[in-house]
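Check out one such.
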Amino acid sequence: MKGSISETVRKTVDASPQIRRMLEADLLNCSSYAASIKQEIEQAVGHGIGSNSIVMALRRYAAELRQSAAADAPAPVGYQIVMHTNIFDFNLEKTDTLLGKIAELYRNIEVNQREFINSVVGTNEIGIVGSEKYRSLVSEAILGEKVLLHEEDLVAVTLVFDGSFAQTPGIISEATGRLADARINLLEVVSTINELTFVVRSQDSIRAYQILRGFQNI
């Protein structure tokens, strides 16, 4: 049984999370998008339709999405933004020797709230991201290990929440969605119970800061 135009448009929009977010945020050009999916919608409903019908369906769905988001919105979360510049990023092949070197590395690091360092141990790879202060220590520690990727001149943009953001569903999804909509590439995403950090290239750092500054609106 063929679906209605509205139902088919909803399914098409829902198939692309980015389109769905843009529609909800009133950032989607409905006329252009309707033209791009017109043939797909016609095939799904089984007959020809005008672009205006698709546009109307999109606008109705946009209103429903915004109404639903407003009803489900959590209380605003308090936070401050901290930016660390001159960040480096190493991605390496995971080995037992490297794990031992990282353990030794952390024993030699002085705790400093103004500096940033993080390591992530994956299934096959290990990532180490840190401030310039720690670069020589890390470079010495990983001598002889296989480096898969190395980048410099990065920025870590950290949201430091007043309380545990882990208890507020959707924060990571919302933040990464907003940054993705702005075409900002996230090189690393790091979280603790009260902090959420995005590592981006320096040319994207100001835009990332501006986007995340309005995060209380979620």
User: Anything to note?
Assistant: The chain is about 45% helix and 25% strand. Helices lie at 5-14, 17-24, 30-45, 51-72, 96-107, 135-141, 171-181, 205-213. The first strand starts at residue 79 and ends at 93.
